[in-house]
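Comment thread on ticket #2218

A.B. wrote:
> Attaching the input chain for the structure job we discussed in standup.
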Amino acid sequence: MSKISSYDIWIILAGYLAAIHVGKLSAVIPILQKDLNLSFTQAGLSLSLVQGAGMLFALCIGAVSEKIGLKKCLIFALILLGMSSFAGLWIDHSISLYFFRFMEGIGFLTISLCAPAILKRLSTPETMNFKMGLWSSYMGVGVSLAILTIPVLLEWLSWQHIWALFGALCWLVALMIYHFLRYDDKQTTVTTAPLNTSTSNSFLSIVKATVTHPPILCLAVIFACYTSQWITLTGFLPSLYVSFNMDLKLAGILVSMVVLSNLGGTFGAGVLLQKGIAPFKLLQFSFLSLILCSWVVFSQPYWLIFELQYLCAILFSFIGGIIPTTVFANTLRYAPQVNAAASSMGLVLQISACAQFLVPPATAALVSSSHQWYNAAWVTVSLSTLGLLTSYYLFKIYTQKKEPI
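C.D. wrote:
> Ran it. Output below, let me know if you need it in another format.
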């Protein structure tokens, strides 16, 4: 455990809690459709709306957080996330659901930007990949916890009270970080030096350095190709399994195992990177596997046995977990300048958020219009193909130009 400190644990815990708020809605989509009279497409919109803030503000929040202070922004984000979730007690219409999901998105986004930037500054070259592997598991852990625990909690509490409980946990973690995280925003990372050693504090210079740095742009597209299809598959799996006449609680348990399997990939990628496995090989293997697995997952049950479909869902999430660790490690290590770690992560998350905002409702609309779940596979296969091409461009073209990727 020498690779990780108690400070790291609080930061990673904040990420896990933020991801719970992303996954909490997919666990209750069938209930929300009844309580709020939502169509399936509207449910898809509410699922992706948490990414609305990232789609609009990720790069700006990343750059501003470096100036305000990463710890301050992390605490603010937890407070905001808690308030928005607690407001679930008063959600009685689709408009209020959309509004508070957007506000939760701001909190989730800020945590996603500030937490890894703090981890980078607290890391050494020997611990960097290990911590990134641990951090990258935050989506898998958080979403799986939400999907697994909410159907059980629904036996005693309404979904509104469950959301209020999650909000209170955010405030508790914010208080712990305020009191126990000893962190100086002025300290700089001791990891690999970035390409550009200029450290201008100007907001515009940070943004310009980030958006004009091709490797960061490529990594953003690669990450978007993964996250948009992962959130689509895991978000709609409960509804897919319910359409197979499966009990919602059982569906929640099965899907939570799918999401939880993502941890194996994120942890494993950190170990593989530490052992010197090329990021290019990891990304190519992952996207090729996603193409095969997603095609099987969305096949009709009379084409393939359910057990095979479920195994492929597990493999999809497990192997897909390799991608975020690989992307995060390269994004933080090769930010264009020392104080552009959060803005680089912001650009990656902003492009990813755009994809996550658009893909779930588009997939839901495609499935609703065709009444065939297998059409969702065309979406996932297309995204994986784009991820393959972009990773090839990044690691083959830019390595020839001596970019240290």
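A.B. wrote:
> Thanks. Noting for the ticket: The mean pLDDT is 81.
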